[in-house]
Write a structure and sequence with these properties.
The complex is a heterodimer of chains A (282) and B (401).
Chain A (H helix, E strand, L loop, with lengths): L6 E12 L2 E13 L4 E5 L6 H8 L7 E6 L2 E2 L5 H11 E4 L11 H10 L6 H14 L15 H13 L5 E5 L7 H16 L4 E5 L2 H4 L4 E6 L2 E7 L6 H7 L27 H12 L1
Parallel strand pairs in A: 3-8, 3-9, 6-7, 7-8
Antiparallel strand pairs in A: 1-2, 1-4, 4-5, 9-10
Helix pairs in contact in A: 3-4, 3-5, 4-5, 5-6, 6-8
Chain B lengths: L2 H14 L1 H39 L3 E6 L3 E2 L2 E2 L8 H10 L3 E10 L3 E3 L2 E3 L3 E4 L3 H5 L3 E4 L12 E4 L1 H7 L9 E4 L2 E9 L15 E4 H9 L6 E6 L5 H16 L8 E5 H44 L1 H9 L4 H38 L7 H27 L3 H6 L2
Parallel strand pairs in B: 7-12, 9-11
Antiparallel strand pairs in B: 1-13, 1-14, 2-3, 4-7, 4-13, 5-6, 5-10, 8-11, 9-12, 10-11
The chains are: A alpha/beta (282), B alpha+beta (401).
């Protein structure tokens, strides 16, 4: 781990005006993320984690405070400059994949590089192929999103987030639309990327997902509640192998939906997860 | 983003909604085709008027009695032209080169089993010079020697109709039962663009037509030509002066109307200019409506693809990348419409020309201007939807369902 952080936020505040009222989504949060860290950002609905992610992703600007990404004070930048930061320094993985429909996997992965005029078409293709190989989709490069499973689509999305070699990958409930088994597969990929030295910030509200990361930051009511180092990082591959064979197909809903890792018979169903998280996003 | 990538994205989006694209393109196609065809029609008729005028003789002047119009009904004029006027013009006028009366008689010319429904024109020999006719075979009649002689000179169409085997000189045709000896034929002049055949003509001495056919001394029209270009105004004044003086005319209204070639061209091209302007404006409106169609569809496209726009912004598209993406799309619709429209307009003009025999002239200017206008239409009507897209907030756009 390097001494100077790759990402540093200092006393970050974000207020929203809702009619006459001012809502304080973030009330002064500070933390650093260092190169090579795998951090989970947790929090319940309304904790400010979505706002935090939007600011970390340079799609929103703080009302006050500082956000230094890879040495740049982003809070001072204009719209276009922020777009360039997103293009060159950030990689996004969304809950709902957000792949362009009727566009092949490789074209989806190439997309961020299209907005970087310095990269030639052949270089673009080469990097896209490399990114798809990294997520194990080298056989499906010319598949369309609707020809792929949810897990495969999310892997394409991860490849897209990798292709510009970002300083940090931001994942927003990246396993939220997936069943337990596929979630673990995705977490395996994230752990693999982490092993290769990538910096990852993973927003989730599922504690078992947090166990796969080395550090967990918990937000509550717009404040930093906990920032703990996880000494005992779970291995996603082991968790996956511990699951019963995949032919057990369950529709059973799991109460609370928080302990999806234990047994597949208790795994949360895909749909409930989706609905719950949508509410969360608002 | 490179223009090539932008074009690829635009083509893909357009191809994805084929029907929608087709309908928006159609709006532009109709507009452009209409503009091209209307301009072709206007240009064609203007050209044909000019051609016709030139073939009539470059410096021709037509004198006719000024008829009083009341409530759309032509009342007989109090004055008429007479032979003495012609003689006066010939002797007194300086700016006039040749003078000829023009008396027509309708009927049919018959030779054996052949006939030709051709008007008989009573003229003096000078008429050939005024109207640029030339003798092909034989001779022209002489005003003095053949004053009321039963002779005629015929055009090539009449030759074909009446003498299919050729050699008309010396033969006799019957016109309203009166025999006329053919003493000459005219060189072919071809047809005017409005379809009237300038070779479908029979000339006879004017006295012959007046006395033998029409039984009148009244002359309806006198043709003349000036001594050269640019004398039209002076010649008009002079003619009017001579004719008024002969009658000691004092009334404020001129007794005759003198039309010069220049006046006729201006008058007729003015009418045709006006007409083509009106038609072009109407066609332009349909192009405008086509543009509104593009704008409408671009708004739909932007709304439909809000989430895609959000994603593109999240991965680094700047406002202007998005703006260009949608602008490319609308410009492609309009240019595609423009290309098809130009082809269709030219095709329609050709069909009208060949089938209906209307004079149509597709001008290169109208094609270039149409193409330019299409480009402008695409940019203009695509601008607002594209700007709307480029100003979306990425967070909001990504959340859009």
């Amino acid at each position: 781990m390097e001494k100077s952080p790759i990402l540093s936020i200092q006393n970050l505040r974000r207020d929203f005006k809702m009619g006459d009222e001012i809502v304080h989504a973030l009330r002064g949060v500070s933390f650093d993320i260092h190169q090579g860290e795998f951090v989970t950002i947790m929090g319940t609905s309304g904790s400010g984690k979505s706002t935090m992610l939007n600011i970390l992703g340079c799609m929103d600007k703080p009302t006050s405070g500082h956000y230094i990404l890879d040495g740049e004070h982003t809070e001072k930048l204009k719209r276009d400059a922020l777009a360039v930061i997103r293009n060159k320094k950030l990689g996004f993985v969304f809950q709902s994949y957000n792949l362009l429909s009727r566009t092949t996997a490789i074209e989806n992965v190439e997309l961020p590089l299209l907005y970087n005029s310095k990269i030639s078409a052949s270089e673009r293709r080469k990097r896209a192929i490399a990114a798809l190989e990294m997520v194990g989709l080298q056989d499906r490069m010319n598949h369309l999103p609707n020809q792929m499973s949810g897990g495969q689509q999310q892997r394409v999305a991860i490849a897209r987030a990798l292709v510009n070699d970002p300083v940090i990958i931001l994942a927003d409930e990246a396993t939220g639309n997936l069943d337990t088994r596929t979630s673990y597969e995705i977490m395996m990929i994230f752990q693999e990327l982490h092993r290769q030295g990538k910096t990852i910030a993973f927003v989730t509200h599922e504690p078992d997902i947090a166990t796969f990361s080395g550090r967990t930051i918990t937000l509550r009511d717009g404040l930093l509640k906990k920032d703990v180092i996880n000494e005992n990082v779970a291995d996603a591959r082991a968790a996956l192998e511990a699951l019963p064979p995949p032919e057990v197909f369950d529709d059973e809903e799991q109460p609370g939906g928080e302990h999806r890792g234990e047994m597949s018979s208790e795994g949360s169903s895909n749909t409930t997860g989706k609905v719950r998280r949508r509410e969360d996003a608002r | 983003m490179s223009p090539f990538s932008l074009m690829k994205i635009a083509l893909k989006a357009l191809f994805r909604n084929r029907m929608r694209t087709f309908l928006s393109v159609l709006g532009i196609v109709i507009g452009v085709a209409a503009v091209i065809a209307m301009v072709a029609m206007g240009e064609g008729s203007k050209q044909s008027i000019k051609d016709q005028m030139t073939s009539m003789g470059t410096n021709a002047i037509i004198i006719s009695p000024n008829r009083d119009r009341r409530g759309g009904v032509q009342t007989e004029s109090a004055v008429s032209l007479e032979e003495a006027d012609i003689i006066a013009l010939r002797t007194e006028a300086q700016y006039i080169d040749a003078v000829s009366p023009m008396i027509t008689s309708g009927g049919q010319a018959i030779v054996g089993n052949n006939n030709s429904p051709t008007a008989l024109s009573g003229i003096s020999a000078d008429y050939l010079r005024i109207r640029n006719y030339e003798i092909d075979e034989g001779v022209m009649f002489d005003d003095e020697a053949d004053r009321i002689a039963k002779v005629c000179v015929i055009g090539q169409t009449v030759v074909r109709n009446l003498f299919p085997e050729g050699n008309p000189i010396g033969k006799t045709i019957r016109y309203k039962s009166i025999p006329l000896k053919v003493i000459g034929t005219l060189k072919a002049k071809g047809s005017g663009d409005f379809g009237q055949d300038q070779d479908d003509i029979i000339f006879a001495p004017y006295q012959t037509v007046m006395k033998r056919f029409n039984a009148t001394t009244e002359i309806r029209q006198i043709f003349a030509n000036t001594i050269g270009e640019g004398y039209a105004e002076k010649a008009t004044e002079e003619i009017m002066g001579i004719l008024k003086e002969r009658r000691q005319w004092t009334k404020p209204m001129d007794p005759f109307r003198v039309f010069t070639q220049e006046e006729m061209i201006t008058m007729m091209t003015n009418t045709s200019d006006m007409l083509s302007l009106v038609l072009t404006v109407i066609a332009g409106i349909s192009l405008f409506v086509g543009g509104i169609g593009i704008m409408n569809i671009m708004y739909v496209s932007v709304t439909e693809r809000t989430k895609e726009i959000g994603l593109r912004m999240a991965i680094g598209a700047r406002g202007r990348d998005i703006l260009l993406q949608f602008l490319f799309e609308s410009v492609m619709i309009s240019l595609l419409g423009g290309l098809i429209g130009i082809a269709l307009g030219i095709g329609a003009s050709e069909i009208v020309r060949n089938v209906l025999n209307w004079p149509m002239k597709v001008s290169a200017t109208s094609v270039i201007v149409s193409f330019g206008v299409c480009f402008a239409t695409g940019v203009f009507f695509g601008w607002y939807p594209a700007r709307k897209a480029s100003r979306l907030d990425p967070i909001e756009a990504l959340r859009f369902e």
